[in-house]
């Protein structure tokens, strides 16, 4: 990625269009997409992922942890729950962090071997736990009651690595919804609560197969020092458990993900090197090989590898404000539309042919297609004047923006394409097809279309029990 350092006057707020290099490079892909019909009047929004950039991020993650003798890097599936993306990462030797039966299914379909899959979720049902243990997937129990379920469900000869998630309660970052180590977080065993440490040590004493500790301190908005402090507390707990038990029972530490992403310009910062440097300072012994490490990064691996492109359908003026109505809104940039201050994005302006627009900047709003007033992805942003038929690009949207769609207005999930560039040469491959109208109807209950009319027409009888199927 081209690195351009700029003095950034207002952190957390994208400061206008990206550098011309980014614009040119994105334009090459945009022109390919337009020529191939991946983006058109009929298909007015699509997502794009840079395959080489994804692999570079994986390589830089590996390089930063090169000093740790035993480490498994897993990808947090929720950040890009797309089978071809997961397959690419599996081929690259990564593991996968999953948090639901759906994510587990995608990880298996993508080809991750079960011993490279980690199941974390605060609400695992008994059957989900049993299936994970049957497969040999690693499981991080969220709480002590879940450990009791595991006691009952562990099959003989179970190969799953089993750990316990703790909440070091080191506090939150800038975004409340992304902070998992607050005093009252719903995740893990709250370590600073009265008697909690003793209960945790006891839980390990009773279960020789319980060999891991897990902490995921937070995501976007959490400073590295806070994350490192949470991991230091987890490391201290592992040492304490082993000392009390008089044996090295805790052999693995899953240190979670959460490296923040810079959404204000092209620079990758903080880097994975910055992160491991913060860890070395906070936990000097972490990389000495006494604990096998697992990481679970999501956003920092993929955010800067992807962008969303959308056509400008109309432009209008209202109350002196120029508004471009585009097809990229809350259905794909959900967090940005609903929490614009926490999740601002850089926007690029391109013409109908996919060339960066060069006209002088003017203050405009960039809105999406949804029928609610908050469906705006950039408010009062200085951009070259957008016109009907132009394209907008939302940068740094490779993580979460393709995996957390919103079915508002029955808008389709956007199509996603992977690409590689070689100068002006672009090759691409489908990652996810845009949702069709038939698929939208199917997930909206079309199969049961007559159900309510039939229910209303039938007299209720005393024997009627269970669901009535039309
Ligand atoms: C979401 C999540 C991650 C990934 O977080 P990022 O901020 O995307 O790196 C890792 N571990 C757990 C338990 C999570 O819930």
TrEMBL record:
<feature type="region of interest" description="Disordered">
    <location>
        <begin position="1"/>
        <end position="25"/>
    </location>
</feature>
<feature type="compositionally biased region" description="Polar residues">
    <location>
        <begin position="1"/>
        <end position="11"/>
    </location>
</feature>
<dbReference type="Pfam" id="PF02784">
    <property type="entry name" value="Orn_Arg_deC_N"/>
</dbReference>
<keyword id="KW-0028">Amino-acid biosynthesis</keyword>
<dbReference type="InterPro" id="IPR022644">
    <property type="entry name" value="De-COase2_N"/>
</dbReference>
<feature type="domain" description="Orn/DAP/Arg decarboxylase 2 N-terminal">
    <location>
        <begin position="52"/>
        <end position="302"/>
    </location>
</feature>
<feature type="modified residue" description="N6-(pyridoxal phosphate)lysine">
    <location>
        <position position="78"/>
    </location>
</feature>
<comment type="similarity">
    <text>Belongs to the Orn/Lys/Arg decarboxylase class-II family.</text>
</comment>
<dbReference type="InterPro" id="IPR009006">
    <property type="entry name" value="Ala_racemase/Decarboxylase_C"/>
</dbReference>
<dbReference type="Pfam" id="PF00278">
    <property type="entry name" value="Orn_DAP_Arg_deC"/>
</dbReference>
<keyword id="KW-0457">Lysine biosynthesis</keyword>
<dbReference type="InterPro" id="IPR002986">
    <property type="entry name" value="DAP_deCOOHase_LysA"/>
</dbReference>
<keyword id="KW-0663">Pyridoxal phosphate</keyword>
<dbReference type="GO" id="GO:0008836">
    <property type="term" value="F:diaminopimelate decarboxylase activity"/>
</dbReference>
<dbReference type="InterPro" id="IPR000183">
    <property type="entry name" value="Orn/DAP/Arg_de-COase"/>
</dbReference>
<feature type="domain" description="Orn/DAP/Arg decarboxylase 2 C-terminal">
    <location>
        <begin position="304"/>
        <end position="398"/>
    </location>
</feature>
<dbReference type="InterPro" id="IPR022643">
    <property type="entry name" value="De-COase2_C"/>
</dbReference>
<dbReference type="GO" id="GO:0009089">
    <property type="term" value="P:lysine biosynthetic process via diaminopimelate"/>
</dbReference>
<dbReference type="InterPro" id="IPR029066">
    <property type="entry name" value="PLP-binding_barrel"/>
</dbReference>
<protein>
    <submittedName>
        <fullName>Probable decarboxylase</fullName>
    </submittedName>
</protein>
<feature type="active site" description="Proton donor">
    <location>
        <position position="371"/>
    </location>
</feature>
């Amino acid at each position: 990625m081209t690195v351009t350092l700029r003095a950034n006057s207002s952190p957390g707020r994208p400061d206008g269009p990206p550098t011309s290099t980014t614009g040119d490079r994105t334009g090459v892909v945009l022109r390919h997409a337009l020529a191939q019909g991946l983006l058109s009047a009929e298909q007015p929004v699509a997502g794009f992922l840079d395959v080489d950039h994804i692999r570079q991020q994986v390589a830089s993650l590996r390089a930063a942890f090169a000093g740790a003798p035993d480490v498994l890097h897993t990808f947090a599936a929720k950040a890009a729950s797309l089978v071809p993306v997961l397959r690419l990462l599996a081929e690259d030797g990564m593991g996968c962090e999953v948090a639901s039966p759906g994510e587990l299914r995608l990880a298996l379909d993508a080809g991750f071997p079960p011993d490279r899959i980690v199941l974390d979720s605060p609400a695992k049902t008994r059957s989900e736990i049993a299936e994970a243990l049957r497969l040999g997937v690693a499981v991080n129990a969220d709480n002590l009651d879940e450990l009791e379920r595991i006691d009952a469900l562990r099959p003989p000869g179970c190969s799953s690595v089993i750990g316990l998630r703790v909440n070091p309660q080191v506090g939150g970052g800038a975004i409340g919804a992304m902070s998992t180590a607050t005093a009252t977080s719903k995740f893990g065993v709250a370590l600073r609560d009265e008697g909690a440490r003793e209960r945790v040590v006891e839980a390990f004493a009773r279960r020789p197969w319980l060999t891991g500790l897990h902490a995921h301190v937070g995501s976007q908005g959490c400073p590295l020092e806070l994350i490192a402090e949470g991991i230091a507390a987890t490391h201290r707990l592992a040492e304490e458990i082993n000392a009390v038990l008089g044996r090295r029972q805790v052999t693995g530490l899953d240190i979670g993900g959460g490296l923040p992403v810079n959404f204000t310009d092209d620079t990758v910062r903080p880097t994975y090197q910055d992160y491991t440097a913060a860890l070395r300072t906070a936990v000097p012994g972490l990389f000495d090989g006494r604990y096998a490490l697992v990481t679970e990064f999501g956003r920092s691996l993929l955010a800067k590898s992807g962008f969303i492109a959308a056509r400008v359908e109309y432009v209008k003026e209202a109350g002196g404000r120029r508004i471009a109505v585009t097809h990229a809104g809350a259905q794909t940039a959900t967090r940005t539309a609903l929490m614009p201050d926490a999740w601002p994005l850089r926007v690029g302006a391109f013409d109908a042919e996919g060339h960066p627009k060069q006209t002088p900047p003017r203050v405009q709003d960039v809105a999406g297609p949804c029928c609610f007033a908050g469906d705006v992805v950039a408010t009062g942003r200085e951009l070259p004047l957008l016109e009907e038929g132009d394209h907008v690009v939302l940068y740094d949207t490779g993580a979460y923006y393709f995996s957390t769609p919103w079915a508002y207005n029955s808008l389709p999930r956007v199509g996603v394409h992977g690409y590689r560039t070689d100068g002006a040469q672009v090759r691409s491959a489908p990652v996810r097809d845009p949702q069709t109208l038939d698929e939208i109807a199917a997930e909206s209950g079309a199969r049961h279309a007559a159900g309510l009319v039939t229910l209303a027409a039938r007299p209720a009888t005393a024997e009627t029990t269970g669901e009535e199927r039309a």
